[in-house]
Amino acid sequence: MNIAPHPSLSEYVAKRDFEKTPEPLSGQKKSADLIYVIQEHHARRLHWDLRLEKEGVLKSWAIPKGIPEAPKIRHLAIETEDHPYDYAAFEGTIPQGQYGAGLVKIWDSGRYTQKVWEQDKIEINLSGQRLHGNYVLVRLKKSENQKNWLILKAKDT
Ligand code: MN
């Protein structure tokens, strides 16, 4: 049985029909560590979704070009709605006609630590299956709805 969704998931819930999509409705923290996931999402346009656990949900960004794997390369990351904790384990096909229709595969997952988490700047250290090291997200303040960020790999310290 599903538990009630987290209050910050109203946008996530409103966009989806849970009779039709296999995506999770909710989820509760299962590990003492903070977790992250990067999902390869074959939607209308291929992109990678970065999701970072924060206060019981997954803060999310869609990254059209994927995560930069070398320093000095900056990729656009578009902030999207909070996703439920259980989304970190989700792989499957979102049916045609549903929001985000297409195949979702886990590209990387693991634990992360927060170094800085501010309104416009996030610095994290990823320790995953694939990625390791420091990453920075910076909000582009001049973007129209302030949902555009840049993500880059920082030098390892
Ligand atoms: Mn997506």
Fraction of helical residues: under 10%
Mean pLDDT: 94
Number of strands: 9
What letter string, H or E per element, gives the SSE order?
Answer: HEEEEEEEEE
Spatial strand sequence of the major β-sheet = 1-2-3-4-9-8-7-6
Taking pLDDT < 50 over at least 5 consecutive residues as the criterion, the unreliable ranges are none
Tally of separate helices: 1
Bound molecules: manganese (II) ion
Descriptive keywords:
157 residues, mainly beta, 8-stranded antiparallel beta barrel, 49% strand, globular
Task: Characterise the protein shown here.
- By secondary structure, this protein is mainly beta.
- It has a domain of 105 residues.
- Helices cover 3% and strands 49% of the residues.
- It is built from one helix and nine strands; from the N terminus they run H-E-E-E-E-E-E-E-E-E.
- It has an eight-stranded antiparallel barrel with strand order 1-2-3-4-9-8-7-6.
- The protein is globular.
- The termini are far apart.
- The mean pLDDT is 94.
- The site of manganese (II) ion (MN) has 6 residues, from strand 2.
- Manganese (II) ion binds next to strand 2.
In short:
With 157 residues, this protein is mainly β. It is 3% helix and 49% strand. The model has no long low-confidence stretch (mean pLDDT 94).
Topology:
Elements lengths: L9 H5 L19 E9 L3 E9 L2 E7 L10 E11 L7 E3 L7 E16 L3 E8 L3 E8 L8 E6 L4
Antiparallel strand pairs: 1-2, 1-6, 2-3, 3-4, 4-9, 5-6, 6-7, 7-8, 8-9
This protein binds manganese (II) ion.
